[in-house]
Amino acid sequence: MNVDCTATVFIIDDDEGVRHSIEDLLGSVGLRSKSYATAEEFLRSERPDGPGCLVLDVRLPGISGLDFQRELGSAGWTLPIIFISGYGDIPMTVKAIKSGAIEFLTKPFRHQDLLDAVQQALQRDHTSRESRRELDELQKRYTTLTPRERQVMSLVVSGMLNKQIASELGASETTVKIHRGRVMEKMAAGSLVELVRMTDKLKLPASR
Prior knowledge:
Elements lengths: L7 E5 L3 H13 L3 E5 L2 H6 L7 E6 L7 H10 L6 E5 L4 H9 L4 E4 L4 H33 L3 H11 L4 H8 L3 H15 L4 H11 L6
Parallel strand pairs: 1-2, 1-3, 3-4, 4-5
Helix pairs in contact: 6-8, 6-9, 7-8
């Protein structure tokens, strides 16, 4: 498996033997891990701010794994979750997967199945982080636009021609061209199609 040396796999299981076994398995392929006996212990701990995933037992003292998954989702956490359980059943599995879990493994599981699930989870987290970074960068670019440039951008992506935008704004076509050029430059858009995609990612309403 491809190993991301910056990633951390967080393990939450009240069985110390299971925690150590998973830590050893992950360490054998070069993956860093941190383990906890309860969800509360995980929340109280200091965690590295980098890519990662969560290997979570369903039955835990205190808050259960499924309830913890729901709480993390409500709090906006996007850490991918792999469930492990000695008592898995189909309704429980369906509920976990529908709520966004990567995998639901019943103990004892094959080592390779867990490693495959971890690889998938880390890839999902990497993709999610890249998307958030891209959106943050787009938002920063958008904030550099003047109010008039934002108006022009909105009208441009709605499909209006320069002369139509000029009429809409009560400006000259030359002025609109200047604003449009600045919008393309500040947003680092190489084409109208790129600008439209940026608007979609920013969830900006297009003028009609």
